[in-house]
Design goal:
This protein has about 240 residues and is mostly helical. The protein is about 50% helix and about 0% strand. It contains 13 helices and no strands. The longest helix has 18 residues.
């Protein structure tokens, strides 16, 4: 299949998905052409209404995440630093200013979180995941997730995302992307370094524990936790400026 045809088949498929789902009268009004919600139909076809997450366990919730974080990810996708071909094609001709508008719009969306799905992992595995998330592993140089993502794991302004309310499959796949170089950030790329220190069993435990926790705080913390761990302190500061 010629590359150009492949690109338009992807974009056409996204548009078809967005337009084929049955809509309530209220939803139809929200998707009126010219409105920001209408323009975001290609995004919400995969990420769910208002960006609340896709139903398949892979497309993440983007609603309510810090605008700087969302903007960074859009820039990374467009530049190929974060690799997923449909996203790259969708964004390749969009300006920085429009990417900022997209990021701000999704950041301002706050649909309710669904109840988490119970994990099928053994209790001992989930406890291992909890320990890594809340305490880290000093012997391996693995900082606790809460030391960068906030004690409530609700993210930290301006550019650190929440970790709760995300599906197990998505969380696992992102660790794999960091490890394999399919997802990159500005150096020092702390998440890539941390992901490579984790075993597959660690990743499964962390993803299982995080995905099974209820969301108690929906607003990102206003400031960075102190003291920042050496492994990721510089990355959090630099990461807000792609």
């Amino acid at each position: 299949m010629p590359f150009v045809n492949y690109k338009y088949k992807i974009l056409g498929g996204l548009a078809a998905m967005a337009l084929s789902a049955p809509l309530s009268a209220q939803q139809s009004e929200k998707l009126e052409p010219g409105t920001m919600a209408g323009r975001m139909a290609a995004c919400t076809a995969c990420h769910g209404e208002q960006g609340r997450a896709g139903p398949d366990g892979y497309y993440p919730r983007i609603a309510g995440k810090p605008a700087d974080y969302l903007y960074n990810q859009l820039v990374y996708f467009r530049a190929g630093q974060r690799q997923y071909r449909p996203m790259q094609h969708l964004l390749e001709n969009m300006s920085d200013e429009y990417l900022k508008q997209i990021a701000v719009w999704f950041s301002d969306q706050h649909p309710p979180y669904p109840d988490p799905k119970p994990s099928r992992l053994p209790a001992a595995t989930l406890e291992h995941g909890r320990q890594l998330v809340m305490e880290g592993d000093r012997a391996r140089g693995v900082p606790a997730c809460v030391s960068c993502h906030g004690q409530a794991l609700s993210g930290v302004l301006p550019a650190v995302p929440a970790l709760l309310g995300l599906p197990h499959d998505y969380l696992s796949s992102q660790f794999g992307a960091w490890t394999n170089g399919l997802r990159k950030a500005i150096a020092p790329d702390c998440m890539a370094d941390i992901a490579r220190r984790l075993t597959p069993e660690d990743v499964s435990a962390v993803a299982g524990w995080l995905s099974s926790q209820p969301v108690r705080e929906v607003v990102p913390a206003a400031s960075l936790p102190e003291p920042m761990p050496m492994e990721c302190g510089s990355q959090v500061h630099v990461g807000s400026r792609p």
